[in-house]
User: What shape does this take?
Amino acid sequence: MADWLKILGKEDSADTAKERLKLVLIHDRTNLNARVLDEMKDELIEVISRHVAIDAAEVQITMKHEGREQRLICDIPVLPK
Amino acid sequence: MAARIITITSGKGGVGKTTATANIGVGLAEMGKKVTCIDSDIGLRNLDVVLGLENRIVYDLVDVIEGHCRVNQAMIRDKRFENLFLIPAAQTREKNSVTPAEMVNLCESIREEMDFILIDSPAGIEGGFKNAIAPADEAIVVTNPDVSAVRDADRIIGLIEAAEKGPARLILNRINPEMIKRGDMMEAGDVLELLAIKLLGVVPDDEHVLISTNKGQPVVLNQKSRAGQAFRNIAARITGSEVPFLDMSQKDDFMTRLSKVFGKEG
Assistant: This one.
């Protein structure tokens, strides 16, 4: 869609709207904002570190949605023994 | 006969709920169905003017609920279709003059005589919406392809599911094919992906809608209007017919415009 504009470096405003809405809807549906996600991440790191060595800097927590269902995905790299 | 009760709602105001209710009602009546449209927007009634029935109001929804008249005294028969009725909202009362249980009782009292009862919901997510959704067997969400309307639609879809009235179906109203082509308007696929619900219809932005509302003659009666065609299709889909969705690129297709320049119809 309007490919020549993209070549000129101008992003379609429809795509911007869609990307913004994706994030807004996740937060609206779950009451989770970026601050809460960060807090959860810190707490998870703390709990899991008690049992196994992990690469805390690489821990990622993200929200995915399938249809109208939301899913928290947590990626925690475990350090080798 | 026992009517299907369908609530038309949106969250955000001004997206075309009342227009959709009027046009679906007339569309179904044109197909020979017995239809009652109920305006549940107490204090801000408008379905009467969109249907062109504002001069015939004697009793309203609150009069029925408070026992000032019988339900059929408040049912205004349409000028064009003898099988179409309107129960207008009260204009000088407040939303809390009615309870969800009273709305259920009202709808049940006419369910056996009708094929469809359409409830035009007020905007918002509070009492007025709860009254409108309480009697519903199914729900239709109307939205526009803009960020605030889609966000509010998502809220209302969640509330419809929580009230166990889902899954709701979507009418995407005021689509501008020219803007979609430029990449400046989300298309139906984008909105459906965000909201994750089924599409009932796509209605193009069409100046015939305003002209029809000016006259009190729903656009669905205008055979030349694309919005009218969209609403006829929606009414047919509600009765279970499989009708393909309108091709939104058709109207502004380059070849069509080109052939118009040369005086041929595209």
About this structure: Chain A has one domain: 3-75. Chain A touches chain B at residues 1-2, 5, 12-15, 17-18, 20-22, 24-25, 28-29, 65, 67-68 (CB under 8 Å). Residues 37 and 61 of chain A are 7 Å apart (CA to CA). Helices of chain A lie at 3-7, 13-30, 34-49.
